[in-house]
Amino acid sequence: MKIDCDNLVRALKTLAMSEGLSQKELGASLGFSLNRTKNLFSGRSKLSGEEVLRILTSREHPLPKLKRYLPLYQLQQDLWGIESENRDMSEESELAVADAQAIQGSLMTVNVNKPLAEMARDVMHDKKWRVLPIGWICSVTIADGKCTYGPIAPDFAAAVSAMKKMGWIWKRGSGVFADWNKINGGASEEEADGYCENTLRSFILDPENDVSMSDSFRRAVQKYWVGAADTEEVDRLRNVVENVRRMAEHWADWELSNDPNEYGVSPKQIYVNKFDYFEQEVLGMRQLHFDLLNDGTEIPSDLETRYRETFSEDGKPYKYSYRIDPILKVNDGPGPLVDASPEDWRRYYAIRDGR
Length: 355
What we know:
Elements: H1 5-18, H2 23-29, H3 34-41, H4 49-56, H5 63-67, H6 71-86, H7 93-97, E1 101-102, H8 116-126, E2 130-131, E3 137-143, E4 146-153, H9 156-165, E5 169-172, E6 175-178, H10 180-184, H11 189-205, H12 215-222, H13 230-249, H14 267-270, H15 274-294, H16 301-310, H17 321-330, H18 342-352
Antiparallel strand pairs: 1-2, 2-3, 3-4, 5-6
């Protein structure tokens, strides 16, 4: 059975719940530090090859027991892969919208003995949000015959929990309530919709709120629209390559930006430190390049040269490869799992900790 790292983390979470363990206790039983446990289970970082082997060879949580929780997640991934391959992005906008299901308002019209999730459903229905087949809650924009999804929450439960913590919805006695003034930021119509979307997304992405999400969701929200055209994907790669080079070359003076992106979120709100952001950009650059090649997208020769120079794949080491190579050595990417040596890990920690 093929084991995807994201699915392995999900299986570990389910295993913890079934055995009454906290994520902290599960991480400790596998030899992870508290910070590493939080980063793994919140989706802020991925399992390394060494960590995967440690989990799969654990005597406390043997593989036969863990395998019980893997098939469902693998099936979900396989089904989504098939749907993605068959999806024609050039369909008319009406057909493209059909890829995402409109969130219906609650059938319970009276706010008495009504579950809090139903009140959250009313909020999402009011904003005309949709849910993608992979579970992401998204806004929808249609322009020039093109449907664009803006990711807001990794799943319905995360959106409900965030609304509750933000004081947008609450339960008192047998009644449930929503503060629409707070939800809309005191604005109306399109301005209110934008405020609601950006505020909820910012809360979910804030590391302090410890919302679990996949790397793919985090990358989509941090920078890009879902379903961008090939030319936009190539521009994305170009921007990431230049961003990685800029950070590597000006590391001492470079700081996390407070400037919000199109979603109203800044890197400083999402990442704990600048290394965390740099690592995600390096890994995102590698994955995006692989995805473009895998999709048969033509990468301009100047960009391909720039990419290969940055990752020292052109036959000579990049001047600042000492900042990039350790990240690639210890993080799994497309292809086989990495086999990092003790020296690779020493270099990685030295860069991460600024030694």
